[in-house]
Amino acid sequence: MRKLIAGNWKMSCYGGEAIELTEQINAGLEANPDLGLDAELLICPPYLYTGIVQSVLGPVSDVLVGAQDCALSENGAHTGDISASMLVDAGCEMVILGHSERRQNHEESDDLIAEKAERAFEAGLKVILCVGESAAERDAGNAEEIVGAQIDNANFEGADANKVVIAYEPVWAIGTGKTASVDDVESMHGFIRGKLQEKLAYGSDIRILYGGSVKPDNAKALLSVPNVDGALIGGASLNAESFLAIAQAGIDAAEQMAAE
Ligand code: PEP
Fold this sequence. Notes:
About 45% of the residues lie in helices and about 15% in strands. It has one domain (about 5-260): Alpha-Beta Barrel (TIM Barrel), CATH 3.20.20.70. The protein is an alpha/beta fold. The protein has eleven helices and eight strands. The site of phosphoenolpyruvate (PEP) has 13 residues, from strand 8. The site of phosphoenolpyruvate has 13 residues, from strand 8.
């Protein structure tokens, strides 16, 4: 299975920067076309720029475009919201749901995230569902309990292995420069895999990404861990060279694992 290398640009670039970054990704892929074939690449710009990014990527690109959230409702009187079907209309293929910044800043609950997932699946979007524990929860020894509950409360109706991706993102590792240790990642990803297998016939085939301060210099070690099927990247995805270096690390890790 190809590793999914997903960039979450958050609210960290303006239109001109989004164009420049996309042009740099295009140039990197032109120089090394295998990168876009041997890894699955996704970029999630701010809503406003998804169309601009699509047009800079061009009609035939190996890079998918996604969004960072979607509305709870399908359409109508919801000022300021963007629906899942609007995202599909705008050419998005995936949506990130339940990112810890949305859980924290917008008080998004598991129930609300499950409803958004329903809208996304109905509209034909693939969902990257983020789960992860806070530092206090890990220190208290509750990391698996928290992540397990987030998965138990998730909505998989209308999903299959191709439509849903789990991103394990320990909250304390996001944007902090701290990453979970390889042992902790292996143990949590194994736990998540077990839960998915328990709940779903296709649980063995769902991709599980790691997210939290993934950088070119730690990517290969993290992406070589069993059950790590890709990465969700914030800061390092804002630099084309770093983003593509992480993709290359994913390809190298997959090749090495296949050879072992
Ligand atoms: C994220 O925002 O999902 C993320 C993992 O950010 P960073 O890579 O900057 O830690």
